[in-house]
UniProtKB/TrEMBL annotation:
<dbReference type="Pfam" id="PF02823">
    <property type="entry name" value="ATP-synt_DE_N"/>
</dbReference>
<dbReference type="InterPro" id="IPR001469">
    <property type="entry name" value="ATP_synth_F1_dsu/esu"/>
</dbReference>
<keyword id="KW-0406">Ion transport</keyword>
<feature type="domain" description="ATP synthase F1 complex delta/epsilon subunit N-terminal">
    <location>
        <begin position="3"/>
        <end position="81"/>
    </location>
</feature>
<keyword id="KW-0793">Thylakoid</keyword>
<dbReference type="GO" id="GO:0045259">
    <property type="term" value="C:proton-transporting ATP synthase complex"/>
</dbReference>
<dbReference type="GO" id="GO:0046933">
    <property type="term" value="F:proton-transporting ATP synthase activity, rotational mechanism"/>
</dbReference>
<dbReference type="InterPro" id="IPR020546">
    <property type="entry name" value="ATP_synth_F1_dsu/esu_N"/>
</dbReference>
<dbReference type="InterPro" id="IPR036771">
    <property type="entry name" value="ATPsynth_dsu/esu_N"/>
</dbReference>
<keyword id="KW-0375">Hydrogen ion transport</keyword>
<keyword id="KW-0066">ATP synthesis</keyword>
<comment type="similarity">
    <text>Belongs to the ATPase epsilon chain family.</text>
</comment>
<keyword id="KW-0472">Membrane</keyword>
<keyword id="KW-0813">Transport</keyword>
<keyword id="KW-0139">CF(1)</keyword>
<protein>
    <recommendedName>
        <fullName>ATP synthase F1 complex delta/epsilon subunit N-terminal domain-containing protein</fullName>
    </recommendedName>
</protein>
<keyword id="KW-0934">Plastid</keyword>
């Protein structure tokens, strides 16, 4: 079973695909989200989103916002987001 994850910023869709698991940084700590997670809405803290999909892992830097979880769907609305692979370490 999978979850539909959508990560949105004011200007673009950063991620829109099915995933197996996510770990999200919230204002009260990290939460792991698996299929059939109870419905919640939470504040997203500045931090790392970890995504497991197709037996691969991806990290994404999130710059604060909100998240809605329910019905095997996760919608994350943030000020900005960057995939770990897109971050230039020399520039950061």
């Amino acid at each position: 079973m999978t979850l539909k994850l959508c990560v949105l910023t004011p200007t673009r869709i950063v991620w829109d695909s099915k995933v197996k698991e996510t770990i999200l940084s919230t204002n009260s700590g990290q939460i792991g989200i698996l299929p059939n997670h109870m419905p919640i809405t939470t504040v997203v803290d500045i931090g790392i989103l970890r995504i497991r999909y197709n037996d691969q892992c991806l990290t994404m830097a999130l710059m604060g916002g909100f998240s809605r979880i329910g019905n095997n769907e996760i919608t994350i609305l943030v000020n900005d987001a960057e995939k770990g692979s897109d971050i230039d370490l020399q520039e950061a």
